[in-house]
Amino acid sequence: MKETVIMHQLSRMSGILLHPTSLPSPYGIGDLGLEARRFIDFLVDSGQHLWQLLPLTHTGFGDSPYQSFSAFAGQPLLISPDHLKELGLITDELLAGAPSGNLEHVDYSAVIPWKYSLLKSAYEQFLTQPSDALFQDFQKFCEEEAFWLNDYALYMSVKDANDGRIWLDWPEQFRSPSEEFKTQLTQTYAKEIGYYQFLQFLFFTEWKNLKTYANERGIRIIGDIPLFVSMDSADVWANKHLFQLDTTGYPLAVAGVPPDYFSATGQLWGNPLYNWEVHQADGFSWWIKRIQNQLKILDTLRIDHFRGFEAYWSVPYGEETAINGQWVKAPGMELFTAVKQALGEDLPIIAEDLGVITDEVDALREHFHFPGMKVLQFAFDSTGEGDFLPHRFKSPNCICYTGTHDNDTTHGWFSSLREECRNKVLAYTCTKEPENLSFGLIRTCMASIASYSIFPLQDVLNLGSDARMNFPGKASGNWNWRFKSGALTDALAKELKELSILYGRYYQ
């Protein structure tokens, strides 16, 4: 009976992976405004039912959605300037200097100072002439989200006062403030705290409206959270006891992954590791709040690096690569049991189970009936019989991808394959012309038994490596791809819809 419920939850659907920053916009970066709604309309017209995003959180150094100042706070850069104008918080004059020069890539060095200047102007206007309704909604938001919002807003305010430095570089009294000093700081930075609270209010109000627009049109939102949080975050600063830190606040060990497909030296992420004994002792309350918070704003949640809940790669702090790490057991079984007891039996969670996956990781995922991931690009690294080949799929309870945000585009990936592997791809996907391989892989993805079939928009548009979203292990130059306005044509929508109908993934 349980399996029946799960299969009903994962109806046979398909969709597109696209982060909102990649949307067209006259303001230098995609946002939650008009173009986001146009993209939803394209999903509807193309017979798709899923929109998968990267984490929506407030990004830190490097602009990575997987390194954020808070596990809860939304990305202020996604707030639509047009929405601010509709609210009467800014004027046309303030929009005149928008950094809109590059239509295919986000120039964060130009976008960030301009966008925050705009947001500060909006906040000043709000303080000067707040409408009663907007003010009441803002107060209600602050009360409802106080459990994370207060620490985040205080953290960002004190961070600004310390020239943007990570909290480890702050004066001692700021690094580990007493409750008395935190109260004092809250009074000292009251206006600044209000500013960051207001940005979150704007973001979540706009996101709620966008999600409603999607859901009313049959589009489900798949979001994403990383397993670990950033060292430079309110989460760590305000909850040091939940992490493996020494008495000065520095990490004892940090997260990463061993050498793998992406890197010969592994990936040294540098995130602090959880003190799982403390989490377990208080019933995993922080994790329950985190997942509950995300499921409030998403339809389905993908958890990045799920294998870290069974065992995580612990690297001694100070190592230059991830080679000299070790696997350490984690209480994943106990954690998700507690989450289910708190939030319900049928958790809409996708487990990112790529990398070094053991029988124990598979057993953990299967125990909770979380669907895993099958990435078609990984099926053709050799001419052998790999588990990522669709005819090797054992259950529909999985998500089939052409590629992910960490992969090259299908077009770029295919160009880099050995000749014998390219020949296998073409034969397996029944693709006669190599230049049409992107749609060949999409067709194969849709034809699989996987309940969900998802493909990056770059593959839908048949783009090359210049459109890649992320290079794992590369410190800069990621997360900036955008597609041009007009790329989502009626002909493209028709072609996708025909495939969705053909392979039983379309519902009216």
Alpha-carbon Rg, integer: 23 Å
Measure the end-to-end span: 27 Å
Mind describing the biggest β-sheet? 8 strands, parallel
Number of beta-strand segments = 12
Pairing-aware structural class of the strands and helices? alpha/beta
Mean pLDDT: 95
Protein model, in words:
The protein is of the alpha/beta class. The protein has one domain: Glycosidases (TIM Barrel, Alpha-Beta Barrel). Helix content is 42%, strand content 11%. It has helices spanning 2-9, 34-45, 81-86, 92-95, 108-128, 132-144, 146-161, 172-175, 179-188, 190-216, 234-238, 276-281, 285-297, 332-343, 359-367, 410-416, 419-428, 437-447, 457-460, 490-502; strands at 13-17, 50-52, 220-226, 253-257, 267-272, 300-304, 311-316, 326-329, 349-351, 372-375, 398-401, 452-456. The strands form two sheets. It has an eight-stranded parallel sheet with strand order 9-6-3-2-1-12-11-10. Strands 5-4-7-8 form a four-stranded antiparallel sheet, with no helix packed on it. Helix 6 (132-144) crosses helix 7 and helix 7 (146-161) crosses helix 10. The longest helix is centred in the middle third of the chain and has 27 residues, at 190-216. The radius of gyration is 23 Å and the shape is globular.
